[in-house]
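re: ur question from earlier - yeah i can do the single chain one, its not a big deal. heres the input i used so u can compare w yours
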Amino acid sequence: MRTIVTRIEHAAKGDGTVTFMTGNEPVTKTWAEVHHGAKAMAFRLQEQGIGHGDHVAVLGPTTADLVTAFQAIWLCGATLVVLPLPMRLASLDEFTKATKARITNADCVAVIIDPDLAPFVEPTPGDPPLLPLPELAGTDADADRFSAPDYSEDDIFVLQFTSGSTSEPKGVVLPNHVVAANLDAILEAASVTTSSDVMVSWLPLYHDMGLVGFCILPMAAGLNLVLGAPQDFLARPGRWMEWISSYGGTATAGPNFSWVLATRALKNMKEPLDLSSLRIALNGAEPVDPDSVRAFVAEGERHGLRPGAIFPAFGMAEIAIAGCFPKPMVGLTTDVVDANVLEQDHLAVPIPAEEREGNSNAREIVLLGWPVPGLEFRVVDPASNEVLSDRKVGELQIRGTSVTPGYYQRPEANDELFDGDWLKTGDLAYMLDGQMAMCGRIKDLIIVGGRNVYPQDIERAVGELNSVRTGNVIAFSATGRNGKEHVVVVAETRMMENLDEVRSQVSDATLQTVGVPCREVVLVSPSSLPKTSSGKLQRALCRKQYLDEELTLV
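and the output i got, formated as tokens:
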């Protein structure tokens, strides 16, 4: 198996390009030009003493220089550690603390940094030096003087920190051979054609989907890439769809909330777009809401979108990125099951089509496809570890060629991570004719009166209320004075009056959706719910803030 650097060098000999959408005007470079600049920067890094086996952190917004720095680190034979950007200005102290912790925990020897962010990460004695990104740009002569070290398939290519949605972020070790195996799996499972596919992304490069799926993959395979930044998308979500239309994008991806924003943008478009080229519209990183998908398809069809392009998938940092994919151009497929049986008996019993309409007990679950080549899935009983048959809900476990060897310097976490050679995901799922259906996270499960209530069911229903901000609802359980568990819902709202009515609406939506009353509704200010650097809801932290009375109430 070739190392990723060998693949990058081969891809640089092709015609593939990357178009950077940041700044006032798009800038297009060939991968050959990026590679030349990376060799020059790699020489400058070698002058700083950075070499084979070192860990180097990078902190900065999505730019051509940032992507060049990634490749320069790999050319030196070093390991890349991409640091998350601050999500909210109000949490800068927490950002500084978390950033320094990642730098320390990853044993970084240097931090390549955008100068605008340097004041937030000022080194103290003993900290690795900060290397301003603009000062690392090399010359043609530097590129010629670069001397490549010996690369190994076992070298750690990326140290990818988990999102921290249910626990403290941990550094996932991704050696060359793990990343390479996952890239090969993506290319095969998604039927990628390097000569014609065009990838379009705004995803953050510090998240596994953005870094591995929409940076390393096109860079190593020579695919055409159109790359924007998260802030460009969030400022005007319609840009994402416009990029696909303008550049003939064939593959793109985003979490469920981003497709909701894209739907609204398409609805407000006065001029038609051309989305007919799109064949992979990957929805992942958070629970896929089938109603949101159908709403996107309805708006997208007016702009030429083919419904078959919808591509609900599953992935995680511990397997580089891709876990299971549906067949391309099949579109959304779901399984409608009895919610009561699912919650009480952990069994996905299908409801016949003729009994679904108006059935409040019907729960529609999105099927996420089959394991990508090189991976195997199984579902086990979390208590007995017995392998379960189809439609029985248990913990999803994975083994195969793109599974991480573990977390960096976290032996206690690694002991809990594996059952032999099976990776324990912590996800509740079931299998159906080889496909995987995701139900939720084990740690997030709400157990009330002997029933297993999935928080995302509550969050989805409450998020549809006009008085609540979609995608900004968290449900969890708390222990009452009688020792019994009850449901708490925390929701962001812009309403400043009629709050009792809003609470009543949230409570009613909870009861109607899961059949369990909501003991307490907590309304908080916009942008105050805790989220990970990749935008995932942090239910455990929200629960702690609730118990500690630290939530920002309206």
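The chain has three domains: 4-13+27-191+207-215, 335-442, 445-547. not sure if urs matches, ping me
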